[in-house]
Structures
1.
Amino acid sequence: MARVVVDVMLKPEILDPQGQAIARKLPQMGYEGVVAVRQGKRFEVELEGPADEAALERVNKIAETLLANPVIENFEVRVL
């Protein structure tokens, strides 16, 4: 069994209000020096068998069609 991680982040040109709200709150909480925050999503996908090229291509297709909105989000697939 293999475990694959899909990290999904908003594209840099897309406004991230949640990240901005976190960044504004940090100095009030005593955390100085943070310039920006971007929020994202992480998915862990367990696969039967090895994380070979075909399996990673399937996970890429899953991420592209279900886990991420390719219009506003980028994603990265990696093996744990």
2.
Amino acid sequence: MLTSNQQVRDASAATLAVLTERELAGIRRDEGARVIHHGGHYWEQTGAPGFFQPVHLLARLRPEEATRPTPWSWGYRATLTPNDASAANGTVPILRLPDLANYELNSLSANRRNKLRKCQRLVRIVQLTGPALLEKQGHALVIDSLSRTRHKNPPSRERYLEQVKKYFRGHHWCVLAGIIDGKLGGYLDGYVVDGVAYGSNAYYATWALPTNISTGLVFEFAQLCRRIQCVHTFTGGLHSRENPQLSQFKDDMGFVVDSIPIKWEMSPLVRTFIRRHRPHAYYRLTGTE
């Protein structure tokens, strides 16, 4: 059973701060990211050193703003306003809920509705208001989850605990967790900037998967976003076309692939390397083959 020192509140009472692009840029800089100001927007280095994109990826820039943010970058990308789509040379394949304002149980497939009901019987979904539960149980859960999914390298305990500290330095991160018989079964995190909610990371213990905890956590995060009136978009990451199981899950949850026009550049050598050796990453970066 959870105790008060484990710092939780029920998901129905969860809260989430709404940031401006400037506020997010300051937070990312404080978290150690390289952030620069260019063309009226804030850009951060992401992935391999030398590649930049706006800290708020869906900020929707004009073509004259979407230019190389520093002479030393080997590549960049930025989404364009709808009126400037003709200037695009690629897309970013965003997963988003097409009608967040009306997203509810009937937005899910019939099979997924049954899984949500099962989760609601077995899992208590809460917002974490402090680091206690993650410090105690989170690292082992993340190692288990990443050993199964292999989508990135597992962190050391020290590096993981540093990330946990970032969650609770301010109020911009929301961490929803699923508790099963008093034990942490999984969690996801996200934040909101200028009306767009970004689902960032999600980790689920292998033993917790039969409870359909992933369905419950994603659904509850969407409900939280619905309650914040200024939030108009909820994105669940980028399309992972090489992962049919994940793609099916997102489809069942009601997400669609929205190919948003972008302007991008990449040095020819790096472009050739990524396109040849990491074609799925190249697709997510540029929307092209």
3.
Amino acid sequence: MRLYDPHPPTLRALANTGIRLMLGVRDDQLRDLANCPDAATNWVRTNILQYPNVTFRYIAVGNEIDPESTLAPFVLPAIQNIYRAIRTAGRDSQIKVSTSIRTDLLERSYPPQSGVFKCSVNWYIRPIIEFLRDTQTTLLVNVYPYFAYLNDPKTINLSYALLQPNSGIIAGGVYYDNLYYAILDAVDAAMERILTAVPTLFSVLSDEEVKAGGSGNPGGTGSETGWPSKGGGQGRDYTTAAGDGPIHTVENARIYNNNLMRIVKSATPRRPGRPLETYIFAMYDENLKPGPAYERHFGIFLPNGQPKYQLRFR
């Protein structure tokens, strides 16, 4: 389960359930956490240590922070301070500290093995990746084949974006069963490229804080993905490239998320033998969320708790 910010009633409800949780740090807290180690210590004490019976898996320090925003310079120091507070509490072997990114930080994603970050974001992403390497933590990546299809419906096949079986393609001489694999591998290649291009500029940790064996590409973990069941608005044509119907349907959302259950049991071509991990966005429709209509219809449940469709977990 993923929570985007600490919510005490939900944290209390998760106690003794065994549900592994990714807990987010609100973006508006990044500045204080970066500038004040004591603030990070207090955050960990209040939101982690007060819930000893909750199984925390990740702390996501910031979600999809734009490298051009005023918050961007605070992400890495906030990660460092939260990590050190977790380490001081003796929980660093259980809880990983990272941040989540959008895939539009990539300059190139096709073919996946040619994935590379935009030069303009290297100052931001590179030291974060070096930190993740040193602490043996993965980068959290929000992977949305839906948006890839929405932005390029003439090139991307809808079945490929919906992760349908037997809809794969050959990309750069490698067979890709679905677009989710291709996007995640493009990020993986970009991470590897940024780490091997030149020697490390600096270590984000002291020598004694770097864990033994903390080297190589830390890889990426899918931290959210999904498909909306309804859409439209803002003057856009949200039908398929062939013009044979809308792409925002309950059936397409059901197909995508059930296929997701299937593909995460396997591995991507770049990471054979390593099953994937991801989080379905979202549990409930966000019926009050601003923006395009599709933003309010990613939930697998309606706001009243009624399920939209059946998920197949096996």
